[in-house]
Amino acid sequence: MTEEQQTPEASEAPEVSAAAEAPPPPEVPLLELRDGLPPVVETPEALSATAAAVRAGTGPVAIDAERASGYRYSARAYLVQLRREGSGTALVDPIAFEDLSELQDAIGDSEWILHAATQDLPCLAEIGLVPSTLFDTELAGRLLGYPRVGLATLVETIVGRRMRKEHSAVDWSTRPLPAPWLEYAALDVEVLVELRDALAAELEETGKAEWARQEFEHLVTALPAGPRQDPWRRTSGLHRARGRRAVAAVRELWQARDEIASRRDVTPGRIIPDSAIVEAANALPRDKGTLLGIKGFNGRGAARYAAQWVEALRTARGLPEDELPPTGSRYDGPPPPRAWADRDPVAAARLTIARENLKERADELKLPVENMLTPDYVRRLLWEPPADKDDDDLPERVGQRLAEYGARPWQVELTRDILVTAIIEAADEA
């Protein structure tokens, strides 16, 4: 009907949108514990019974750990959750035991299922739990191109259940642990087996199962990272330190705070925040009164440990010039990409070409580009290529270099020719 053909009643009738006519979407049901909340395992007898139950179960074992991040200095596990078909869910208090080797023996070579494995593997290894094989549901979600890969989001998207997340940031070192917290923790492994199976099927369907297998094997076999060099350089706001002596004062204050935090097993930021360290480092006060009068120098330990802060600042003031740390950190890799154009225009061209082509390929595969190849590997290789554009062995050498960095075979296969092309095209344009 045209506007000229409309009747007055039709033209004056209120519009009703399709959205208004459609029924509201059904609310996603809340995930609930199928077997109720189990008691916390905190005696040798209970641990032996749990190990026997796990050994009698079938299939992979869903595992999670809760740490007291933001409350404690250590990254130890304060609760371990397990679930296996035929075994049910177990909540184990690792603080009650010297180690959990009895549980490790019960799991044996069975596959672990974790979400964001790199977060939990170190603290689980501390208590004797180390996987032979694993399946990481977060990493699987990344390889499949899911835009959000948090556990709650994947469970809602794939399993169709909504998870409680209100206790995600609580102090898990609390004893006894409240029942609502324990229920939250138990729910984290409730559907991991179901989620794993759904993601594994999708990996097979999309031809990405082998990629995932290599990634999971890498998680199991990769050597743990060594101590971070100059960890004090991670102080937030360090760039505001005015000169090398102020940087030295940041270092001395950070180290004093770290020693106190380690001794008390309290997260360092709860003693004095990073911002207080930078303020004091710039002011370099000589006595307690002046220090405590600095605007921004606050925190629970500002006054309590004032003597230690004053001593740290005295040490920084007394350092000779040749012992002051540089304002920037030492790095054995290439310079920041923003400096490439000035320092080596051809290298900058290589990086630009490679980034564009890698992004295009990753988009085709519905894969985050950083999962297709670690950006640091790209920068290192393109700053100093293993051979020039006329070398017949260039593809082989690029592949070897990537493997030496730590790239998995599937990553080398997908990215080697893209990087070779960038090396050749940039040289041709020079």
UniProtKB/TrEMBL annotation:
InterPro entries: 3'-5'_exonuclease_dom, Exo_C, HRDC-like_sf, HRDC_dom, HRDC_dom_sf, RNase_D-like, RNaseH-like_sf, RNaseH_sf. One of its GO terms (biological process) is nucleobase-containing compound metabolic process. Residues 1-29, 319-342 are annotated as: Disordered. SUPFAM superfamilies: HRDC-like (SSF47819), Ribonuclease H-like (SSF53098). GO terms for molecular function: 3'-5' exonuclease activity; nucleic acid binding; nucleotide binding. Residues 8-21 have a biased composition (Low complexity). Pfam families: DNA_pol_A_exo1, DNA_pol_A_exoN, HRDC. Residues 243-323 form the HRDC domain. PANTHER family: RIBONUCLEASE D (PTHR47649:SF1). This is Ribonuclease D. It comes from Nocardioides mesophilus.
